[in-house]
Amino acid sequence: AIDIDKLRSASGAITIDPGYKNSGSCTSEITFLDGEEGILRYRGYSIEELADKADFLEVSYLLIFGELPTATQLEKFENDIRKHTLVSEEMKSIIDGFPRTAHPMGVLASLTSALTAFNPKPVNPNNEKEMYEAVCKTMAKFLVIATWTYRKKMGYPLNHYDNSKGYVENFMSLMFELPTGSYKPDPKVIDALDKLFILHADHEQNCSTSTVRIVGSSHAGLFASISAGVSALWGPLHGGANQAVLEMLQEIHDNGGDVDKYVLKAKDKEDSFRLMGFGHRVYKNFDPRATIIKKAADDVLVTLGVDDPLLEIAKKLEKVALEDDYFKSRNLYPNVDFYSGIIYRAMGIPVEMFTVLFAVGRLPGWIAQWKEMRVNKEPIGRPRQVYTGYTLRSFKEVKDR
Ligand code: ACO
């Protein structure tokens, strides 16, 4: 067994591990991931079974509180989230200050951080009641402001949560409902989105989650830590890849659909282009989420009667890359983001919102990891370095430089 107290007090030699490829930052009971075997489990339950049988709020509860909720606990959780869905009117003046051209992820990070101003009391993670309330509040308000980033972009009036609808259904109607009240989402679309949120809900110590943990390790509040997670997720090498994949597929399509040309380009070391949606730091065999999403993409397109040429390009690209020695020798496979954008597009979600959807799905994971880190009383995250700059130099007055 690992003696964590001994590791915590360790000091002395410094290991250099850029990108933390081989460094564990914590112990965790939340998510198990085996990159060689393509296994992903939340609290011991396989992602395949959860995606098939559970719903997003059930999975959120499981991740955050450690066990699947009973029917009573689940109903209470949903009701308690509803109690917090009202977002302060003053938040609207903050959102008004952004230009409509602003990227929704930037707006989301800012609004999440701004929530701190309206909820200044720090939560004590060891007080179960306080923590439970903070969880419900965060799940409620983050969902609403995430949809507001879209309404802002479109110049539409901001919508409020409808307590007669479920959490994921609300996400869609908060985005798309117009004052005429005519928006009726297909229940199969809601189910597919629910599944996508489950697949994104946690993924152990990825870039955004590690960010949430390290920011929280300074005892910064939950909203501030999650806001930092949103910023980390935004990058195209992480959650921003779902937007980048769609833009790449569109570009291939607009240039005549020649996938071989793009595979060649991705292999060219002089070219910074990478096949977006390919490769993963941990999965070196296949990403189990991608397998589920590929099937879901087929199903959603059939349900909605959408014939998307980009899905064909994606399939062709996958086939060519998987047979290519460059990709085979580096264990580069499609990741979760490779097919998710195709589904979002079929649902009518604009490309710039894709990473926001990822953030809504990842929220319970961020909360669970923040809570675990604080309850475990982890020390402040503070990596070391090996200094490679100048040795001591004498200062020169500006006139002598
Ligand atoms: N296209 C072409 N070559 C690639 C790709 C790609 N998508 N991904 C990795 N490689 C190559 C690298 O050039 C490198 O080649 P080399 O050994 O000849 O130098 C080798 O594969 C290893 O790549 P690294 O960048 O060292 O792997 P790392 O684990 O650091 O990066 C990452 C993983 C960031 C996901 C990378 O594969 C990538 O950039 N993929 C595209 C972006 C993407 O899809 N991100 C989403 C990840 S999933 C998520 O965050 C939800």
Description:
The chain is mainly α and 401 residues long. 55% of the residues lie in helices and 2% in strands. The protein is built from 18 helices and 3 strands. The protein has helices at 4-8, 47-53, 56-65, 71-82, 89-96, 104-118, 128-154, 167-176, 187-200, 207-216, 222-234, 241-254, 259-267, 288-304, 309-322, 325-329, 337-346, 354-375, and strands at residues 31-34, 39-42, 45-46. Strands 1-2-3 form a 3-stranded antiparallel beta sheet. The mean pLDDT is 94. The structure holds acetyl coenzyme *A.
Topology:
Blueprint: H1 4-8, E1 31-34, E2 39-42, E3 45-46, H2 47-53, H3 56-65, H4 71-82, H5 89-96, H6 104-118, H7 128-154, H8 167-176, H9 187-200, H10 207-216, H11 222-234, H12 241-254, H13 259-267, H14 288-304, H15 309-322, H16 325-329, H17 337-346, H18 354-375
Antiparallel strand pairs: 1-2, 2-3
Helix pairs in contact: 2-9, 3-18, 4-7, 6-7, 6-11, 7-8, 7-18, 9-14, 9-18, 10-11, 10-18, 11-18, 12-15, 12-17, 14-17
The site of acetyl coenzyme *A has 19 residues, from loops.
